[in-house]
Specification:
By secondary structure, this protein is an alpha+beta fold. The protein is 23% helix and 34% strand. A six-stranded antiparallel barrel has the order 1-2-3-6-5-4. A hairpin with a 4-residue loop joins strand 2 and strand 3.
């Protein structure tokens, strides 16, 4: 028994010691884990310090903008009068309601010597009075110029003293990456100097119908009404974009905001500050996005990304460079092109007089051309007339001034589904130029899938109709 007791005690002792050792190894982290935790904590503190510095610096750079505009023209009815009409009041207002319209937004200093502040065009459009507040000081603002097509406006403040304002530096927006940190500063709902933090969610957003030239940076940094015109910055305190719009079903923040890229802001403000007319380069082509039907007719792989050239104007930079109708542009100035918006922006903000490489696909072959954009070239659009005769896709065709014109489109027809409208001119069928209704009808009748080249008010584009 004694031996058993000793053995039992020894076993329990050994087991207890083993559990203590194992427990210790589980609880006490290794040196590497401790080092990683310390490093992570240090990095977070460093990031926090940088954001605090940016916020403090923004006091002298980010402006609150108030504008006032007197409503002119036809008489306005007092909205309070309209409200009471809902409850049965049928009188007439004693006086016409002609209020001063006020709006608020944000801007930021881009030149502290001249007192230049950039903001959105929609913040200052048609303003009779502009009031700019920076770091608690109120200044009178005067309009320098605006560009509604990019929603960019420039104002100059008066009466500031040296040291009262500081300019923010622009970063190269082409170099930012999705996932990069983003800091938005502005005056949402009139709350001055509000700082929010997030990431760059996406780049190259277009089709928002906010401006004509769209290449937005998307961010989840909170942006609300009143943030318009404020800077979107990186963690170095440089401007990567100007907050312009939000996607919202409620009118407030829903995690999706859009900013005009800094490179676009700089290109436009450089012209506005010099009093120049905004000139955007043009190649002299009409273009359209590729879809699977077009790719099949053009013999392109479905993985190809590019923009189809629908027409090339006579004497245009594109024609001089040897670019033809039916070519597919895949790269412009070394940058990949996958949408019409992307190509339009690349061309519009390119320099005049420089040889720009353009990579195209023609008949399955990859070619390179060089286009020189001319400041003198302007793309004019001419109108087209309509006519009458029978076709077989639910359209009525006729000859009008030696053109094959769509005069009627049957409701619910294949042509209507493809977007063809009366007045469209059929230029070519299955890439063959046609000169008569009979010729066009014959080719259409022999094809199960038809590729039409349409001219609509001077602009040409391709349409695929599958029977």
């Amino acid at each position: 028994m004694r031996v058993l007791k000793v053995l039992t005690f020894s076993f329990v002792t050994i087991l207890t010691a083993s559990l203590i050792v194992n427990a210790s190894s589980m609880i006490v982290p290794s040196g590497t884990a401790v080092s990683e935790a310390v490093t992570t904590s240090s990095n977070m503190r460093s990031l926090e310090q940088e954001i605090m510095k940016i916020s403090e610096k923004a006091n002298k750079s980010v402006a609150s903008i108030k504008t006032e505009r007197t409503v002119r023209g036809r008489e306005q009815i007092d909205p309070f009068f309209e409200f009471f009409r809902q409850f049965g009041f049928r009188g007439q207002p004693r006086q016409p309601y002609n209020p001063n319209r006020q709006s608020m937004g944000t801007g930021f200093v881009i030149d502290a010597r001249e007192g230049l502040v950039v903001t959105n065009n929609h913040v200052i459009a048609r303003a009779d009075k502009i009031e700019v507040t920076i770091n608690g000081k109120v200044y009178e603002g005067e309009l320098v110029g605006t560009d509604p097509q990019t929603d960019i406006g420039l104002i100059r403040i008066k009466g500031f003293k040296r040291g009262e304002i500081e300019a923010l530096k622009f970063a190269d927006s082409d170099k930012i990456k999705v996932g990069s940190f983003a800091i938005a500063v502005g005056n949402p709902f009139g709350l001055s100097q509000t700082v929010t933090f997030g990431i760059v969610s996406a780049k190259g957003r277009s089709g928002m119908n906010v401006t004509e030239y769209e290449d937005f940076i998307q961010t989840d940094a909170a942006i609300n009404p009143g943030n318009s015109g404020g800077p979107l910055m990186n963690t170095s305190g440089e401007v990567i974009g100007m907050n312009t719009a939000i996607f919202s079903k409620s009118g407030g923040y829903m995690g999706i905001g859009f900013a005009v890229p800094s490179n676009m802001v700089k290109a436009i403000t450089d012209q506005l500050r010099d009093g120049k007319e905004i000139r955007r380069a043009q190649m002299g082509v009409t273009i359209q996005d590729l879809n699977d039907g077009l790719k099949e007719h053009l013999g392109l792989d479905k993985n190809v990304s590019g923009v189809l050239i629908s027409s090339v104007a006579n004497g245009s930079p594109a024609e001089k460079a040897g670019i033809r109708q039916g070519d597919v542009i895949v790269k412009f100035d070394g940058k990949s092109v996958d949408t019409v918006s992307r190509l339009r922006n690349l061309v519009a903000f390119s320099a005049f007089g420089r040889k720009i490489p353009v990579e195209i696909i023609r008949d399955g072959k990859t070619l390179r051309r060089h286009v020189v954009l001319s400041e003198d070239f302007k793309f004019d659009i001419s109108d087209v007339d309509g006519g009458i005769i029978q076709g077989d896709l639910g359209i009525t065709l006729s000859m009008e001034k030696n053109r094959i014109v769509v005069s009627e489109v049957e409701q619910g027809s294949l042509a209507a589904s493809a977007g063809i409208v009366p007045g469209d001119v059929i230029v070519a069928v299955n890439r063959k130029r046609v000169k008569s209704v009979e010729e066009a009808s014959k080719i259409i009748g022999q094809s199960n899938s038809v590729l039409l080249l349409i001219n609509r008010k001077g602009r040409e584009f391709f349409v695929v109709i599958n029977k």
